[in-house]
Amino acid sequence: MIRLAAFLVASSLGAQTIAITGVNVVDLTAGTIVPGQTVVVTGNRITALGPAASTRPPAQTQVIDGSGHYLMPGLWDMHVHLRSNPVDRDRPLVDENAATLELFLAHGVVGVREMGGDLHEHVLRWRDEIAAGKRLGPRILTAGRKLDGAVPSWPGSVSTMSAADAREAVKQMKKEGADFIKVYYNEVELPLLRAVLEEAHAQGLKVTGHLPRNLTLAAALEAGLDGMEHGMYLRTPKPEVWESYLAEGRQRAKVSIAADGAETTKRQLWMHDAGEAGRIYAQLAARPFWVTPTLMVEARVRYEISEQKFDSDPRKRFFDPAIWASWNPETGRRRPPSGAVLEALKKSARQVRELTVQAHKAGVPLLAGTDCGVSNNYVMPGWSIHEELAMMVEAGLTPAEALRTATSNAARWRGTEATEGAVAEGMRADLLLLRANPLTAIGATRELEALILGGRIFPRSQLDAMLRAAASRVEKNQTR
Ligand SMILES: [Zn+2]
What we know:
This protein has 480 residues and is an alpha/beta fold. The protein has helices spanning 5-12, 94-106, 120-131, 163-176, 190-202, 217-223, 239-254, 261-271, 274-286, 295-307, 321-327, 339-361, 384-395, 399-406, 408-414, 460-478, and strands at 17-27, 32-42, 45-51, 62-65, 70-73, 75-80, 109-114, 139-142, 147-148, 158-159, 181-183, 207-209, 227-229, 290-292, 431-434, 448-453, 456-459. It has 2 domains: 5-73 and 421-478, Urease, subunit C, domain 1; 75-414, TIM Barrel, CATH 3.20.20.
């Protein structure tokens, strides 16, 4: 337990300065620990950092004994959803989604990149309220609404059928306040995608999303896409092989021998070409092109729901029953796979992990994103980022490499790496004080002793209180 004797006194005086003494600073760039540091936080900035002897906190400082603890930058989950349940359109789940925001904080998630949905008006409001200090939650960047084709896959998406539509949609998103653009085209004409990209870039917005299946990764890169979501798109079949596969699929759909899930997945697995990957990953690295592999959702939603029961999961009590119902395969949007499909999806997830590591080794910048939220079975806001990081390490990244995807890389994506995403003087002080060293065991990110955010310190007791409040809110709603 850290010493917080000064905490109550200081907070009641509205203290401006916090000093963490004797702490191990986690240097994620070097992958090393700098022991015995004093870190002074004034407002939301680190104003001094150095050995205790040479770093004297000013008078009236709230002092926290950090000895035996580790200080690292706060985590960003770069792929989350705040949305309603498409199979239960009567309940928009506005308050239920808002209630998940504190769950992120309680798990050291200081920022989220929200990938767009039907609650965009609320998400934009939450973002602004959090930024203004009127609401407690992680900083939010949001796509607003997704851009999709004629028949959008998700409620809330904007349908665009021409280049002119696309430009208009991007302008509209910008006007509404979107921070970036998310594309979700199953198939797309290249001129339409180019229009999205040109307009977005003219408006100063990055574009990320799903890879349309009629375009190869190389083609999407050439068109100007800034990044993509989901590691499955790291598969790089030879263009001519992919073309003939698509043509065959279209042909067979007409004669009602459409390929089933197992066949499609297996063939896509086998079509990956290592030579092509080497060439294309080098181009992605040079750009840089941002990849959010979302390993969590790849495993949990695609096959773990077939093999694990989550109903007795102790985390159930933190989520509104309506959110939990969207995750239950019996009541939610996604059905659990079985048989040959299940086996193929497991192989697919394994390949995605391998390709993620290969891409990383080739220098492709990765972002940690979990795809948590309504409809993505048991990918739980707050908890999921720690599972994602653990999966990256299990796949072959070092803990430092995995942690960078949720800290300094996330800041690079936002264009704020000069002032965010590291524990150093002048940097924004969104910090985690951990009980264990995250460089030796990634699981240490779950050992959160205190969160420092927006010039405030949230000790473990306060984070636990947040969790208790979330659970009791759910309980109240259940007995309503
Ligand atoms: Zn998603």
